[in-house]
Amino acid sequence: MPRSSNIYILPGYANPEHLENVRSETEHISKVTWGRDGHQIELSETNSLVEDKYSLNLSSAQYVVEGFKTPESEEMAQNINRQAMIHHHPRGHQEKHLQFKLRKENEVIRITLENLSSDDYQRCIKGFLSVSQKIIELERTEGNILANLQEFFFNERVSELDVDRRFLLGHIKQAYRNDAIRLDNGEPVTSEKLQELKSEIHLLPFLDWED
Amino acid sequence: MNDKTIEVTSNKITSLRVTQKTKKMLEALAIKKETHEDIILRLIKMAKNLSDENGSKLIERGNVTGTKYERIHRTFKIKTEKANYSVVCTYNDLILLSMLRANKRLKGYISNRNKEFDWEVDLEIVNVRIEEGKWEEPINLKSKDRKEYLLIYLVVLKDILEETFDINIYEITALNDYFERDKWERAYKENNLSLESFHSDVQKKLREI
Question: Is the pTM for the entire model greater than 0.90?
């Protein structure tokens, strides 16, 4: 592992009023957390201080009382847990990659970002942050949340990251062409599976590249 | 129905039967005041290091031998005249180099050269806590008190060298000794430590005061 190569991007684009920094013995976490009525959305950036490990993580969780039926459909409401991240670590899948945990069947999708310089990796991280705005907005409309989550999570500078969003999507498109978008069992995503993934509205912003 | 009982016990002391000769051989490997358990645990750690895919490696290409270092980390507790510190540091894993130093025949298996391998500790302080306060970036202490920061660095460096190479750097004991370049150079030469380490880990840092 090289000497410390920590990445601190979230603090530059987060609303400073809601940004929390937590420094422990071996990790530094910066995060913004919104929560109300059993619904929590968190954007967090974690740097290991002792090994080459980083992640920018967007997670949302909705917890319902057991036995509660949704008013719309009379179906039993379920706990919802979603996670999207861009990260790298020295164990397991060691290359820099995006990882998504989908609600359906707890499926995990990985998009490996190949042959990235450290500058390009940081651009991809900024692109992820830019896409996070859309995901958070989706959470807001789906969850009938009245609060202005865009203002809660981000400062004005986040609008500068649109060019990095396009940069990230370009790399994701390249990853698809190189069979570097894979399911948890290691199988590459086929064109049929890609269409299925695009129907997951929380995943679509990451797969919405221009052809 | 499953009738299995899972027993949870505290870590009991057991006895190990070895011959008198083996016991004396084990005791001969002790560093400072290590107990039998300490010696065995250290040897287990060294054996794991050698068989591990991770850990520092020597790489030979023709006449050139290079070292690919594994970075390890540890938290050190240091008490100076000013405060008590907890300091998290990362540095190169030098266990392999230490073993080569101690065992000439092992060194001979790696290459036919008689020259000592050069190495460096490449110590980095990554986290600091003063007394029982919050963990902070090291730059905070460095910008407030550069000399104290350097003292902590040198104290940790000395501890790493002593423990890794089983030596006692008695030349550097009192506060002012740590900042004496000549004392460090003498310590390195008398203990046959890598002069590359002296230049990059010590001399370069002392110039920062």
Answer: no
